[in-house]
Structure formats: C-alpha cells, structure tokens
Amino acid sequence: MARALIGLALGGGAARGLAHIGVIEALIEAGLEPQVVAGTSIGAVAGGFYAAGRLAALHQFASDLTLRRLLRYLDVNLAGSSLMTGKRLDKTLASHVGDIQIEAMPKKFVAIATELGTGQEVWLTKGSLAAALRASYALPGIFKPVRIGGRWLMDGALVNPVPVTAARASGAQFVIAVTLHSGHYVRNTLFPVEAEASPDARAERAIKGDLPKRNRFGLVKRQLLGQRRDGAPGIPRVMLEAFNITQNRIARSRLAGDPPDATIQVHLDGIGLFDFHKAEHAIEQGRAAVHRYLSAMRRDGAGPRFEPVSQR
User: Fold this and answer.
1) Catalytic residues
2) Cys-Cys link to 26, which of 12, 74, 92, 290 (CB 3.0-4.6 A)?
3) Is residue 146 within 8 Å of 153, Cβ to Cβ?
C-alpha cells in the first residue's frame, strides 16, 4: 500500500517558530519526510527553506544568533510605514535562497500572506521564494508590507495562522499541524481590577528632550529590545504580543473548522517572541515534541496513521 502524501502546516510565533526546524528534522529522521508544506510568517520561512533543500542553512543561521548579532538586524525606520526596514534580514535570507522559484523546488510549498486593505488571504505558490517569505513574515508595524502582483501584502497569520487548508489544497493527504505554546494558559474569565497608573517620569523627560543624547539613545535601545529598566515591555514586544493574542484566537477558530489529521504541540517555556538568541533551545523543543508524539502513538498501539486517506 502506498504511503499517503504527508503535509505540514507551520504557523507563526516569531522566535518560538524556530522550533519548526527541530520538528522537521525529527520527522525526517523518523522516516516521515513531508512532501507538502504550507507556512505562515516564520512558519513560511522554516517551511520554505526546507522545501528548497536549505533547512541546514537556516538551522546554522538561527544557531549563530546572539543578542549582539540580533542588534545588527534592528535597522530602525522612524520615517517609514514600519518600525524596521527589514533590509538587513531580507539580504541575509536572500543570500541563502538566491533566486529560487517556488514552482521549481523539490517539495510543494505555499506561503500565506494577507492583502493590506481587503484582508484577503493570499496563497503564494509561484515566483520568487525570497519575496514570498518577506511577504508572509511582514508583521504589521514591525516590517513594511511587500508589494507583489500589484498588491501590498503583510503577515499571513492575520488570516490563517496554521494553514491546514492550504496544505490540503496543495495535495497533502495527511496533514500535520504544528502548534506553539509558551506554557502560559489563562481562562477567559472576567474579573474586576482596580486601575492604578505610575507615570514613567524618565520617558516623559526623554520625550521633552530633557535627557542627554546618549541617554536618549539608550532609552530607544531598551525600547527595541524590551529591556526597559522599569520592567515595562518595549515597542516590539508589545506589538508582537498583541499580534500573538489575535493569532491564537484565529488559529483556534480555523483549526476547529478544518482540523488537521495530527497535531504536534511544542511547549516553549522560557522563550519569548523576541528571543531569537535562544534558537537552539527552541529547535530542541521542536524535536522533543515530535518524539513525544511518536512515543504516545506507539504506546497506544496505534502508530502514526500515515496510510492513504480519502480525498477531501
């Protein structure tokens, strides 16, 4: 009996999404090599590199990231439509994928993006892989939208955080969804809270121009990296966390309407959305999640169901 065509649906999650690298590596080692990949945001980056045969290069790039090296990619853009231009990151990723065309890759791949203005879900299945990845991870406010085919496109997680539907439409017969969890679960319960506010006097002085220039620069740096002395989150963290909350809500709804054939849950305690310097830990957690899933299937005597399933 022929084996079913395995598909992966890889969602967003900023730095946590580096766990996708470990998931893919562990699946391949287990003899479960995906032939179809649908990815959103950083899930598109991991999936795109894998589909192009460049996963090892992405693993190396991620592993080499440190806080100091991460600073090199924080090309602040105060006059444009985003906090950062993203040019340095674009150039680095493009150096690994070159002019690879999606339709020429050895694995089927689709990157999910969102059209600015209409909110339409866009599936990028042809053309430049580098451009498709840029559009899929163009987080609103962080990176500027990417113009493709006359459309301004931004992060696909706004409409399809874990693209199971796209994987199936691309020919996958057995779809594995990879979900990322930070380990913090809060029930949706309303409760009264007394509102109190403590003004940040130092920030107010910086706005008024009362701080020396070198101190103002340090304040901006802390805002970007989320390392403010008062413990308040920096600008990128606020935007990423807000986006992540919305993404999680949408993902639950989409997965309930079109559930995958299997779900691998990666638990990422201690890894924040901006902790790209913790790549190796995230990758190892991705590998561990696959091992837990396969062990549970063997323990139950069922084994992973990768026989052909009915066409949908």
Assistant:
1) 41, 155
2) 290
3) yes
Q: What is the pLDDT of residue 123?
A: 97
Walking along the chain (312 residues) 10 residues at a time, the average pLDDT comes out as 83 91 97 96 96 96 88 70 74 88 96 95 96 93 89 92 94 94 53 62 49 46 54 65 69 79 90 87 96 85 45 36
What Cα–Cα distance (Å) separates residue 190 from each residue in 187, 243, 253? 9, 21, 21
pTM of the model: 0.80
| 102 alpha carbon, distance to own chain's centre | 19
Contacts of 292 (CB under 8 A, 6+ apart): none
CA–CA separation, 198 and 115 (whole Å): 39
Position 12 scores a pLDDT of: 87
238 by Cβ neighbours in 10 Å (0-12 / 13-18 / 19+) ranks as: middle
- Tell me the two tokens of residue 91: 């150039």
Residue 3: count other Cβ atoms within 10 Å of its Cβ. 14
Q: How far apart are CA 66 and CA 54, in angstroms?
A: 21
Distances (CA, A) of 103 to 8, 46, 52, 109: 17, 17, 10, 8
Task: Output the pLDDT for position 225.
Answer: 53
Give CA–CA dist 286/264, Å, rounded.
9
Tokens 């693993």 appear where? Answer: 59
**Which residues lie below 8 Å from residue 135, measured CB to CB, with a gap of 6+?**
111, 113, 122, 124, 145, 146, 148, 153, 154, 156
- What H or E segment, with its residue span, contains residue 33? none
